[in-house]
Amino acid sequence: MTHIFSPKSIDRLKGVHPDMVLVVEYALKRSSTDFSVNEGLRSLERQTELFKGGFSKTMASKHLKQSDGYGHAVDLYPYPVDMARVNKGDWRECIRFGMIAGAMFSAAKELGIPIRWGMDWDGDGQTLDHTFFDAPHFELVK
């Protein structure tokens, strides 16, 4: 089955680096699970709000406009998603984030565009060696 982005997801990719947009669009075509773009480019005000709320650990987020004028990160969620189940750590819902990650890494590899996932910040393939987990988050490695 081929999935397509809703107009809302397409709008949320505005201001995101074209390389990341390419990876996200290609991943959606390859993914066995449908997903949506929850957030791309962020304002400083939005980042401050997330940082103060403990949902982000940095004010130097790649969601913010970088020196090239683009945001370098996106947050992707399975579609549809049951956030109550996600917040409880329900593995049936959480595994879908891993499916998105698989599609993203496969697409990035084929396109030759390096990315990082918010579940494996150091890129060593281990997700349990971190203290902050951000399953929806993907960013360019530049």
Please describe what this structure looks like:
This protein is of the alpha+beta class. It has a single domain (7-140), classed as Muramoyl-pentapeptide Carboxypeptidase, domain 2. The chain is 38% helix and 13% strand. It has five helices and four strands, in the order ααβαβααββ. It has helices spanning 7-12, 18-30, 44-52, 83-87, 91-111, and strands at 35-39, 73-78, 115-117, 137-140. It has a four-stranded antiparallel sheet.
Put the structure in a nutshell.
The chain is α+β, with helices and mostly antiparallel strands and 142 residues long.
Essential attributes:
Muramoyl-pentapeptide Carboxypeptidase, domain 2; alpha+beta; 5 helices; Zn_M74/Hedgehog-like; 4 strands; M15 family metallopeptidase; 142 residues
How far apart the termini lie comes to 32 Å
The radius of gyration over CA amounts to 14 Å
Strand order of the largest sheet: 1-2-4-3
Mean pLDDT value: 89
Figure out the total of helices.
5
Number of domains: 1
- And the CATH topology? Muramoyl-pentapeptide Carboxypeptidase, domain 2
Low-confidence stretches: none
The major sheet is characterized as: 4 strands, antiparallel
Derived structural class:
alpha+beta
**Helix residue percentage:** 25-40%
Beta strand count = 4
User: SSE string, helix = H, strand = E?
Assistant: HHEHEHHEE
Name the overall outline: globular
Any idea what the CATH architecture is?
Answer: 2-Layer Sandwich
